[in-house]
Amino acid sequence: VLGGDVRLTSEALKLALAKGLQDAGVDVLDIGMSGTEEIYFATFHLGVDGGIEVTASHNPMDYNGMKLVREGARPISGDTGLRDVQRLAEAGDFPPVNEAARGSYRQISLRDAYIGHLLGYISVNNLTPLKLVFNAGNGAAGPVIDAIEARL
């Protein structure tokens, strides 16, 4: 599963990553603009092998990078597999692309399932006397907040 944040470079990086994954035989599901939490949800919800969010998190807008998630929505970090990825990349021993085994690419939306999951943690009736204020901070959470608001 792939997603990307609102940075101007995220979409191009995500599509280049998708192409490389497809060349390696991976079937790619692109959930579009998303926050990292949506990649965690999608990875678990779909039962896929992993997910990648193209983002530089809280870093300046001219930075970009990737957050990696393995099956079961578990983060990949320096002590949980990232060093293995580094060794593979540094070895540079990549087989040639086999067009017959190339992976697929599909754009999907899990927004409704994600919103349902989030709202499953609360009783909407208990919110009635409250006035809620959200600040998406110019981030990818804006559309999620809008979708939640539509259900309240």
UniProtKB/TrEMBL annotation:
TM spans (from-to): none
Reactions that this protein is recorded to catalyse: alpha-D-mannose 1-phosphate = D-mannose 6-phosphate
GO biological processes: carbohydrate metabolic process
One of the record's GO molecular function terms: phosphomannomutase activity
EC number: 5.4.2.8
Domain Alpha-D-phosphohexomutase alpha/beta/alpha: 1-80
Root EC class: isomerase
Keyword Nucleotide-binding: no
Record's signal peptide: none
Cofactor: Mg(2+)
Pathway(s) the chain acts in: Nucleotide-sugar biosynthesis; GDP-alpha-D-mannose biosynthesis; alpha-D-mannose 1-phosphate from D-fructose 6-phosphate: step 2/2
InterPro entries assigned to the protein according to its UniProt record, in alphabetical order: A-D-PHexomutase_a/b/a-I, A-D-PHexomutase_a/b/a-I/II/III, A-D-PHexomutase_CS, Alpha-D-phosphohexomutase_SF
Pfam short name (any one): PGM_PMM_I
Source organism superkingdom: Bacteria
Keywords assigned by UniProt, alphabetized: Isomerase, Magnesium, Metal-binding, Phosphoprotein
Keyword Nucleotide-binding: no
Family: Belongs to the phosphohexose mutase family.
Protein name in UniProt: Phosphomannomutase
